[in-house]
Structure formats: structure tokens, C-alpha cells
Write a structure and sequence with these properties.
single chain; 125 residues; mainly beta; 4-stranded antiparallel β-sheet
Length: 125
């Protein structure tokens, strides 16, 4: 059974850090592009970051560039999203998603087929 499970969310103060994990089961992450998305209350889901399967290229939304870092540990079948200098506007449910295809638009939802259930990130003092 193909499954993606996010973890690592929580409550953090502005300026703080969190590391989200996306663990895969039922398939090997090596051959998949993995994207991170987020959805704030009342807003559409938006792309945050992506790491490709082919050469490990990474992509970031402008709003998180320089603060977030995506990485993968194939031995653990897990992708991480390190989030630093968090802001209140980063508050959202964060989802990871996988795609077996060559990614053309890494931050667009339609590129991905399997999705996790999400983990809540709240940035507040």
C-alpha cells in the first residue's frame, strides 16, 4: 500500500525552526519527485518546495527561498523540509506529495499523484 506520512509539525515562535519529515511506505522514494505544499485556512493549497528524482534538483517558492531547505535520505526513504526563520504567515497544514513523472512544473499540484494527510505548523508568539 502506497503511503506518505508527514510529521514534525507543531507550535513555534516567530524566528524559530522546525523540520518536517515525509516518510514513504509501499514504494521507494528514490524514483519519485517529492513536493511540499501548504494550505492556510481560507486559502488555496500552494507549492512550497520540490526535490527531483533524477538529479536531486531543488525548487522553492519565492516566499520561502533562503529560509527552507528540502533534502532526501534515500536510505531512510524519507524527505525532509527544514524550515528556519519561521514567520506567522508560514502557518498552515503542510503536505508532501509524490510524482513518478519528470516534473515540468515542480510547485503545481497537478504534477503529483499521491498525497500525505498533512501536519499542522503554527507560528505564533
Amino acid at each position: 500500500q502506497v503511503q506518505l506520512v508527514e510529521s514534525g509539525g507543531g507550535l513555534v515562535q516567530p524566528g524559530g525552526s522546525l523540520r518536517l519529515s515525509c516518510a514513504a511506505s509501499g514504494f521507494t522514494l528514490d524514483y519519485y519527485a517529492i513536493g511540499w505544499f501548504r494550505q492556510a485556512p481560507g486559502k488555496e493549497r500552494e507549492g512550497v518546495s520540490c526535490i527531483s528524482s533524477s538529479d536531486g534538483s531543488t525548487y522553492y517558492a519565492d516566499s520561502v527561498k533562503g529560509r527552507f531547505t528540502i533534502s532526501r535520505d534515500n536510505a531512510k526513504n524519507t524527505v525532509y523540509l527544514q524550515m528556519n526563520s519561521l514567520k506567522p504567515e508560514d502557518t498552515a497544514v503542510y503536505y508532501c506529495a509524490s510524482s513518478p513523472h519528470t516534473i515540468v512544473a515542480p510547485l503545481l499540484l497537478y504534477e503529483y499523484d499521491y498525497w500525505g494527510q498533512g501536519t499542522q505548523v503554527t507560528v505564533s508568539s
